[in-house]
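Q: Predict the bound structure with sodium ion.
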Amino acid sequence: MKPCKRIEVVIERAIAPRLADLLLEAGAPGYTLIDHASGRGDRGERRGDEPAGTSTNCMFIIACNEDEVVERIIDAVRPTLSRYGGVCLVTEALWLRH
Amino acid sequence: MKPCKRIEVVIERAIAPRLADLLLEAGAPGYTLIDHASGRGDRGERRGDEPAGTSTNCMFIIACNEDEVVERIIDAVRPTLSRYGGVCLVTEALWLRH
Amino acid sequence: MKPCKRIEVVIERAIAPRLADLLLEAGAPGYTLIDHASGRGDRGERRGDEPAGTSTNCMFIIACNEDEVVERIIDAVRPTLSRYGGVCLVTEALWLRH
Amino acid sequence: MDSLFFANLTSPPLLFFALGLLAALVRSDLEIPEQVAKLLSLYLLFAIGFKGGVALSSSLGGWSTFTSLGAAVLLASLIPLGVFFALRARLGAADAAAMAATYGSVSAVTFVTATSFLDAGEVSWSGYMVAAMALMESPAIIVGLLLYRIYSNNGAGAVPFEAKGMLRESFLNGSVFLILGSLAIGYATGSRGMAQLEPLVVDLFIGILCLFLLDMGIVAMRRMRDLSRGGGQTLALAFLGLLLPLLHGAMGMALAWMLGLGEGDALLLVVLAASASYIAVPAALRLALPEANPSYYLGTSLAITFPFNLIVGIPLYHAAVRWLIA
Amino acid sequence: MDSLFFANLTSPPLLFFALGLLAALVRSDLEIPEQVAKLLSLYLLFAIGFKGGVALSSSLGGWSTFTSLGAAVLLASLIPLGVFFALRARLGAADAAAMAATYGSVSAVTFVTATSFLDAGEVSWSGYMVAAMALMESPAIIVGLLLYRIYSNNGAGAVPFEAKGMLRESFLNGSVFLILGSLAIGYATGSRGMAQLEPLVVDLFIGILCLFLLDMGIVAMRRMRDLSRGGGQTLALAFLGLLLPLLHGAMGMALAWMLGLGEGDALLLVVLAASASYIAVPAALRLALPEANPSYYLGTSLAITFPFNLIVGIPLYHAAVRWLIA
Amino acid sequence: MDSLFFANLTSPPLLFFALGLLAALVRSDLEIPEQVAKLLSLYLLFAIGFKGGVALSSSLGGWSTFTSLGAAVLLASLIPLGVFFALRARLGAADAAAMAATYGSVSAVTFVTATSFLDAGEVSWSGYMVAAMALMESPAIIVGLLLYRIYSNNGAGAVPFEAKGMLRESFLNGSVFLILGSLAIGYATGSRGMAQLEPLVVDLFIGILCLFLLDMGIVAMRRMRDLSRGGGQTLALAFLGLLLPLLHGAMGMALAWMLGLGEGDALLLVVLAASASYIAVPAALRLALPEANPSYYLGTSLAITFPFNLIVGIPLYHAAVRWLIA
Ligand SMILES: Nc1ncnc2c1ncn2[C@@H]1O[C@H](COP(=O)(O)O)[C@@H](O)[C@H]1O
Ligand SMILES: Nc1ncnc2c1ncn2[C@@H]1O[C@H](COP(=O)(O)O)[C@@H](O)[C@H]1O
Ligand SMILES: Nc1ncnc2c1ncn2[C@@H]1O[C@H](COP(=O)(O)O)[C@@H](O)[C@H]1O
Ligand code: NA
Ligand code: NA
Ligand code: NA
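A: Predicted complex:
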């Protein structure tokens, strides 16, 4: 088990493809995407109930054990959140190597 | 990045609107809701397979950086879990400010 | 609130029933399963877009406060990940007792 | 039992239900995703409500409508009383109240299968029976919750009485609301509306019922497995799940006979009495009566009573209705 | 206003929309899952596109087609200019541009409801109006984004001009793409294709529209609630949401009159002008103009203009069209 | 190649498949949600199985049925042997076994598209070909897994032989189970059942096939993109994906000729031989043979062979069948 950072980003679903590209560019070793979430934040309630998905969120989870890459991911996520809203949390975790 | 608590609550989906109201009353700055989960716990398996959603769970994630609000959220969640079942985990995290 | 480990496993959805069985055998007190996720990892992109679910992932979350059981869970997850791919993260958390 | 019994056993809806049971029995990974199952169930409620409303609009008003609806509501209020007092000593107030609500209410899908059974046998039935079904969904929930409030040992203070919530759970429950709403719209638009919706609500009905019952077969068999792992109490529950529909069916039969209902309507009243809710009521009870154990009321209703009524009950009740009327 | 007004009020699609509004108003837990709603909306775009293409294939080529399509594109480019300059001072460039794009574009579902209103009244309309609708989806997005780029105060550097992204969001948007694609396929396969797809795209159309409008009623009422909690600005937005369709409807009416369109086509042009997008444009704006507040443009369009057009607008515009033409 | 080739190219199902390819090529955000795609695919399996069963019930029993089914199972067992031994040296035992299973099995959607191609050309075909398709789904999985077990270098101990799991994955796989079950129910209920389900399983069939192929076009083009990023091996895989259907189609053709099958049945046998599974087999292989790389077997089958068969293969095989028979 290797120490790593667990980065979690909640963002509008429409932005997901862009964020995925940004993550790859930043060198993320991978990510998991849960593509339907609703929620509430500074910009009010997002019910996730419209057929067009305009009020639907999604959640990225990224495990990363290189500090430098974590920095780059954070730097890529920050302006995206400023522009489109959303939340990013970082947690210490252990990564099971198999 | 600001230290915060990451609160995670798994509960029956039918209870989600009530819990969302309780979270707001407790002053939570926001939440994310993943509205389809299955699982197993003290009350047996919940397969999430009925059209009525009677055996479906959901998961709330709440980031909160004010200790007092965290207390209030926990106090709101505890009796809900006692009455309806479910699980609540609290983790230390860093919240990316943008 | 009791300290516990929060174990999170991302794996192909087709493997979910097997992993659930393994978790029970290992003595896990419960689990939550989010049964639709996509992602990217060593084995390339998994878009979660096929009707057969062949490229769909899922995510297990297990809270466990007995170290011995955590060990057994890890020992059950490791060979599964080696064989089928996937990711497992372990985080320290507090478990709200109600 | 006449040839309709065998016709029922080889009707596509029943065979797809059996296929679903088999799929889960042999642990095939055949699966209907939750949102698809929800779509199928919304469709059935929408279609049966609308068709019932249209039928009502062309035949409303007679005394027989009035008495049938009254009988339906009466049944739905009396049955839970009986169930509660019979089970309270053994199961405790919460579980007894939940069983009362579940068996006092009805299963829309069992009803719908009975109508397609009648249609296949070319036996006529009245549109107001759909209204009867819609009216029978909610009373038992209220009766059950009131009984719990009165007889639970914790004292009045301990059981919060959320009257507003209770009414919401009973009448504003999604399924009840959709059936009542579609019924009203069918009634309002009558044959003009039917001309527009017929291809969806009539032509496709049996086919979509087949797909839905395939899913319900899978779900029911999974619940049977879960029940069967439950240990000692299981046998008692299974027995209850077979006994209650027979008892309540007999009550429905007696009432149908007293009211002089025709063959079709009589069968439907019996089926309504005999069936137990596994959609609307459990959803309401999880919110209003979380103290009750769902594996009792939902397990019994979904894993025992529902398959029993579909496979054995409907043709059995039909034979009995014929015998009684002839 | 003639009897069609009341016929509209009692048409199944409108009644199911009202049922959805009611469900959310009384806080019933009736809910259409997101993927089901998506399926219904994909179906409507697929069906209306295909039917329009088939109609086009048998009637294309006249001068009237050409002028109608031109008029449609003109409207969709002019309306956003007016909206932007009227609102810029009060809302700022970003929100004004978003409102411009939203109201310059169209609501496919409002259009579809108007066609079923015409069909119910046996008023004929031309297949190329579907092409007009498809062509009106995108220009307003481009006009709105260009206006924002020109008039935003941050200077050109601050607002990244993603021309490629802008075109992608406008023309490759899922809904626009599906309608245009289905239109092309309907056109290519003509009556031969229609013979194969008729049971799906024609026979089931109104029924599925009912289910979709039930969902949209729920969603619209939730947005009304959210808006109504919004405080002072709400009243102004609600007023805008009623004023703009009337204004734009009048513009459409004038154009239809100048072109000498028949009753059906004239109504459809008016409805297109009066309607505002709540699917394609908001989805595009979230990506291309995140600076704008969705509760303004999406809230107004979905919670105010859409229900207004469905319930009051369509019969009102129809009465006006009749009066103007007669 | 006669006019049917062009008729195929302009049939709605194929055009919607092309629209899907285009949508993913230009990176439109048009998307069919996963559960909707699952519903469409469940519907197709349910409908084709049921229709095949009904057809079987009215024409079963002849020698030709028996020999055709035998030929189908033979093909499905021999093809994997050939594929395995041809590829083992280059790809290794695991990937060769997976390719063997994939190309030995069949694609239900390709089959279904071929039947609608025949229907459009008014060429008759036999219901038992559906049974043939159902019977061809599983044998190749078993053959592939056995070959892997025998020829993998790790020795017997290292490759756990899960016979029970293997049979489960092969015969209890959701798609195989649903097709076989629907076939049995169609057979049991015959024309009586068909009268009830016709509006769903016959009338809507082509329309729903269009929607499903739209989705499969999107998915197939995404896989082509992924493959094309794969580097050197890609060209070889693409070549395989074109070569194998032609080879296997020729084998099917020879067999059809030896059995003296009619035009329609011969084409269907060829299409079954030429097609490769991208639903049932990959799902089974992920569980039973995780050592194999899905981007080889699933990528080739879904991104190359499936589009090739739909667009070029079916009319090509048809021309060949006609030439051979005439
Ligand atoms: N405090 C929070 N905890 C968890 N999720 C949040 C929080 N705040 C916002 N979110 C999520 O992020 C989305 C966008 O947030 P915002 O941009 O603040 O409106 C919301 O819809 C929520 O899903
Ligand atoms: N130890 C656990 N780890 C993760 N999730 C759990 C755990 N225990 C229970 N859950 C989740 O909480 C739901 C309700 O739990 P319970 O009330 O214990 O039956 C279960 O269906 C699971 O989804
Ligand atoms: N670094 C990572 N962070 C988060 N999720 C990951 C990561 N790597 C892989 N995954 C998830 O695990 C799945 C299988 O990973 P792999 O076996 O590495 O292809 C991927 O499709 C992702 O959903
Ligand atoms: Na009952
Ligand atoms: Na407009
Ligand atoms: Na094959």
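A: Chain C touches chain B through 22 residues (CB under 8 Å).
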